[in-house]
């Protein structure tokens, strides 16, 4: 690409940045891309401003060493128990778990059935006569049941009476003792409890020492032995108890193991909870084992959260940039959607974003210095944006700055600012909102104390709310009142006395205070107008009254209209005698001039007005009233006169038309209508209410027919309201005179009509 082509491309880009973008993608890219670049630049720079409060880092110290600085927790975290401590506590939890046994009622029935079957078989083997018993078969039978008896014991068992007594005694012992619960062996399993849990038809706790074991069962069952039994009989009775007994209280290993696992899991693994802002290690003190364990837990949590090391810090920085960028982007989108004129004007856009950036820079410096948050100049941002552009945009800008500042405090994890993360944004929004929405209600710089009271009061009420919510000391309210008052005073004085006038010069925007100063009838240019062109001066006053009433009705800016009307005809001072309102009776200099020259003089009062406005450095908005109050209407009187004088000459209509442009705003359109209506109604011979209304309708319809209102946002409803207001004011101005008594009429002379023969006169009321 050649150097000339490169320069041309950059010139096109610069033009696209500061104008409404065209349909081409290149213009769209340059126009919106520049504004996106501003957002990205602020989003990158702002997080770096808060980097003085560094992110937490891992700390490595040895037990017994002296800590060089305090280690403060940047967030809440838990400290786990040491492994040996956790193991001991879990073992203790296992030991207190009750061992579970199941009461098996069917086992007693089985034992009884086995006993009954044994004795039935014995009856068949031994028969009813012991002398005829087959000893070989008897020994085989006993061997099959695991019994070995001596000859004396065998003879005892062969006796049917004794055998029946043995059976009865054993069955009685089984029925009595087994259903109550007999355990094969009581194993504590390492548990320390003196109770066990027995599950049967109903679960119950049983003392361990009250449970019957098999050994104890044998002893208890001897009570039920036959009373007349011999030694051999007791031995057979004992052998049969041991052979056919069954434990009915069985350990439930699965249930016991499950209960122990639940007990182990129920042991809390956390030994301590460190709150945000709590001191972990104290400077200039030895680090004990407990401190070291807490510090290691903190380091582990830092690593887990990704805050330790360069990678974690990069992620935290990226998150901070993204957070800030989202909020700044919201402000840009709000401006684009609701105030597109600010978005398109690159100077206005840069001023809003620049003020936002300046306040955030100030917030970071104030935070680093440890000054009260009330000194963050958020009210200055609100006052400047609200005065120059719009209170709504000012409030949104304040909310975005508050969100960014509060968010940066939270993202940094500074415990000392934990409360500030909530209170600072709240105070900023309260004070900034009061300034942004209150600046439009203050019309004079001398009333700055009202703004100071509003902003200071907002700080005070926000402080009261924070104190009540957080149960803070009452002195916090006094601090909020004092520092809020200081901030409100500084911001208001700087805004009203220094920054607003300077930004007005830079942007060309006129605030209400400037418009009030321009509306002062003692202003040099207006005093000169009253001397050089008194008729024009009086005409401007009357038009201002009409236009102001109409603007109030349609919701326009009446202060802007009044200021604009006062200066809309200042160009007539160049040749005041050529305008009918300044001409004495019977003297009209246009009678000696050709129509084309007369039209040029009339038309040039717009150009002369713009020249005077530039010389006296009037705001740009006043220039709009001067150039637009006639639009592109024709000077029809002199056009018709020229056609009559030179019917054969081909006239150029543009020589008899005002240069324009047509009215671009509601205010300049209202002035166009008010200017024509005031001039027309002033020459009415009998200005009755009906005639005034008819005249107003005709003139408004004429301007609509001439397409003079095509480029302004006036609606038909606005026009109806404006016509009603015009009529109301004019009817009040031209009300019927009262009839004076004859004595007074003799003293007061009747008024003399003023005019130049063309109807341009007025009759005083």
Strand order of the largest sheet: 6-5-3-8
Assign an overall shape: rod-shaped
Look at the helices and sheets and give the structural class.
mainly alpha
Low-confidence stretches: 411-418, 742-765
Q: Total strand count, please?
A: 10
Mean pLDDT: 84
Description of the structure:
With 765 residues, the protein is mainly α. The protein folds into three domains: 3-50 and 311-509, no CATH class; 94-260, no CATH class; 514-747, Hypothetical protein af1432 (Orthogonal Bundle), CATH 1.10.3210. Helices cover 62% and strands 5% of the residues. The chain is built from 30 helices and ten strands. It has helices at 3-17, 25-49, 83-95, 105-126, 135-144, 151-158, 160-177, 214-221, 231-244, 253-266, 289-305, 309-338, 340-344, 346-369, 378-388, 391-412, 420-438, 448-470, 475-507, 512-518, 524-532, 534-554, 558-567, 595-615, 620-628, 636-645, 666-682, 689-705, 716-733, 742-747; strands at 71-72, 77-80, 99-103, 182-183, 195-199, 204-207, 212-213, 249-251, 270-274, 279-281. The strands form four sheets. It has a four-stranded mixed beta sheet. The longest helix is centred in the middle third of the chain and has 33 residues, at 475-507. The model is unreliable at 411-418 and 742-765 (pLDDT under 50).
């Amino acid at each position: 690409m050649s150097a000339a082509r490169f320069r041309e491309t950059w010139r096109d880009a610069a033009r696209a940045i500061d104008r409404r973008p065209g349909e081409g993608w290149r213009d769209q890219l340059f126009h919106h891309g520049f504004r996106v670049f501003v957002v990205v630049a602020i989003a990158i720079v702002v997080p770096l401003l808060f980097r003085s409060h560094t992110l937490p880092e891992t700390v490595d110290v040895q037990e017994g060493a002296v800590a060089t600085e305090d280690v403060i927790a940047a967030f809440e975290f838990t400290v786990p128990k040491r492994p040996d401590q956790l193991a001991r506590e879990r073992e203790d939890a296992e030991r207190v778990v009750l061992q579970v046994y199941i009461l098996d009622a069917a086992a007693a029935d089985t034992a009884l059935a086995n006993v009954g079957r044994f004795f039935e078989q014995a009856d068949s083997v031994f028969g009813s006569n012991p002398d005829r018993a087959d000893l070989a078969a008897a020994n085989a039978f006993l061997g099959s049941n695991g019994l070995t008896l001596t000859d004396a014991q065998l003879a005892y068992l062969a006796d049917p009476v004794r055998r029946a007594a043995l059976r009865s005694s054993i069955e009685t012992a089984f029925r009595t003792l087994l259903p109550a619960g007999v355990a094969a062996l009581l194993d504590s399993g390492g548990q320390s409890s003196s109770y066990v849990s027995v599950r049967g038809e109903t679960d119950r706790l049983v003392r361990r020492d009250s449970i019957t074991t098999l050994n104890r069962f044998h002893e208890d069952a001897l009570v039920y032995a036959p009373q007349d039994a011999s030694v051999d009989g007791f031995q057979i009775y004992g052998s049969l108890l041991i052979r056919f007994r069954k434990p009915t209280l069985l350990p439930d290993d699965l249930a016991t193991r499950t209960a122990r696992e639940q007990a182990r899991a129920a042991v809390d693994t956390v030994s301590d909870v460190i709150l945000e802002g709590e001191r972990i290690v104290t400077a200039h003190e030895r680090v004990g084992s407990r401190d070291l364990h807490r510090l290691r837990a903190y380091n582990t949590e830092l690593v887990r959260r990704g805050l330790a090391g360069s990678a974690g810090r990069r992620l935290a920085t990226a998150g901070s940039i993204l957070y800030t960028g989202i909020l700044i982007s919201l402000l840009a989108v709000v401006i684009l959607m609701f105030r597109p004129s600010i978005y398109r004007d690159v100077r206005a856009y840069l001023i809003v974003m620049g003020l936002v950036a300046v306040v955030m820079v100030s917030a970071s410096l104030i935070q680093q210095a440890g000054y009260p948050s009330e000194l963050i100049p958020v009210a200055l941002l609100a006052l400047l944006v609200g005065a120059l552009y719009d209170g709504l945009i000012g409030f949104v800008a304040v909310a975005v700055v508050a969100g960014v500042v509060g968010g940066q405090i939270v993202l940094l994890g500074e415990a000392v600012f934990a409360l500030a993360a909530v209170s600072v944004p709240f105070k900023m929004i309260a004070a900034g909102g009061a300034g942004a929405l209150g600046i439009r209600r203050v019309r004079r710089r001398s009333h700055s104390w009202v703004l100071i009271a509003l902003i200071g009061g907002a700080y005070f009420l926000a402080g009261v709310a924070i104190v009540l919510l957080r149960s803070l000391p009452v002195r916090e309210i006094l601090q909020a009142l004092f520092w809020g008052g200081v901030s409100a005073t500084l911001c208001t004085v700087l805004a009203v006395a220094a920054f607003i006038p300077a930004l007005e010069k830079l942007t060309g925007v006129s605030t209400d205070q400037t418009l009030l100063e321009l509306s002062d009838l003692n202003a040099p240019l207006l005093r000169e107008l009253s001397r050089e062109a008194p008729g024009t001066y009086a005409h401007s006053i009357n038009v201002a009254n009409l236009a102001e009433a109409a603007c109030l009705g349609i919701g326009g800016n009446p202060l802007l209209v009044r200021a604009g009307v006062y200066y809309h005809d200042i160009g007539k001072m160049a040749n005041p005698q050529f305008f009918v309102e300044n001409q004495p009776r019977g003297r009209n200099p246009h009678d000696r001039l050709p129509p084309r020259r007369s039209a040029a003089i009339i038309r040039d009062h717009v150009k002369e007005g713009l020249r005077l406005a530039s010389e006296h450095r009037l705001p740009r908005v006043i220039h709009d009233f001067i150039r637009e109050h006639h639009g592109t209407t024709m000077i029809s009187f002199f056009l018709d006169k020229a056609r009559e004088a030179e019917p054969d000459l081909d006239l150029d209509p543009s020589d008899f038309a005002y240069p324009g442009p047509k009215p671009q705003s509601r205010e300049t359109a209202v002035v166009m209508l008010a200017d024509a209506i005031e001039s027309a109604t002033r020459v009415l011979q009998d200005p009755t209410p009906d005639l005034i209304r008819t005249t107003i309708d005709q003139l408004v319809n004429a301007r609509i027919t001439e397409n003079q209102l095509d480029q302004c946002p006036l609606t038909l409803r606005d026009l109806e309201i404006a016509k009603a207001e015009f009529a109301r004011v004019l009817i009040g101005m031209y009300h019927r005179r009262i009839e004076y008594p004859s004595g007074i009429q003799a003293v007061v002379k009747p008024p003399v009509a003023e005019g130049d023969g063309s109807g341009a006169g007025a009759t005083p009321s």
